[in-house]
Amino acid sequence: MNSSYLYSLQGCVSSLRMSNDLLSSSIASLDSGVNDLPRMKTVLKTDRVFEVVPESEVNTVKQSLQGEVEPQIIDLLKMADTAISRLERREKNLVAKAQLQEVRLQQATRRY
């Protein structure tokens, strides 16, 4: 065979080996990049769960809650009214007592 022909074949084989090495290193790089892909797919997976509730059920729960809370609110309002009435009576008593003390003080200063 001709030496230039052998030299050309040797160049082709060398180029083919370099291409093979480049492809091998590329595959290794890609493999390390996608090796964790199944785990990442699981980690990044989002489940959207929505539950639709009928409006009648919502109204039933609202009425039930209103039935539980309304009597408590009424009781608290009655207690507040009672406390306010008590405080108003106490205020009136204290004002009357203060006026009485003022009158007594004026009478005591007139005597002396």
TrEMBL record:
Domain of life (superkingdom): Eukaryota
Pfam families: DASH_Spc19
Subcellular location(s) of the protein: Chromosome, Centromere, Kinetochore; Cytoplasm, Cytoskeleton, Spindle; Nucleus
Keyword annotations of the record: Cell cycle, Cell division, Centromere, Chromosome, Chromosome partition, Cytoplasm, Cytoskeleton, Kinetochore, Microtubule, Mitosis, Nucleus
Major subcellular site: nucleus
PANTHER family noted in UniProt: DASH COMPLEX SUBUNIT SPC19
Binding partners and assembly: Component of the DASH complex consisting of ASK1, DAD1, DAD2, DAD3, DAD4, DAM1, DUO1, HSK3, SPC19 and SPC34, with a stoichiometry of one copy of each subunit per complex. Multiple DASH complexes oligomerize to form a ring that encircles spindle microtubules and organizes the rod-like NDC80 complexes of the outer kinetochore. DASH complex oligomerization strengthens microtubule attachments. On cytoplasmic microtubules, DASH complexes appear to form patches instead of rings.
Family statement: Belongs to the DASH complex SPC19 family.
Record protein name field: DASH complex subunit SPC19
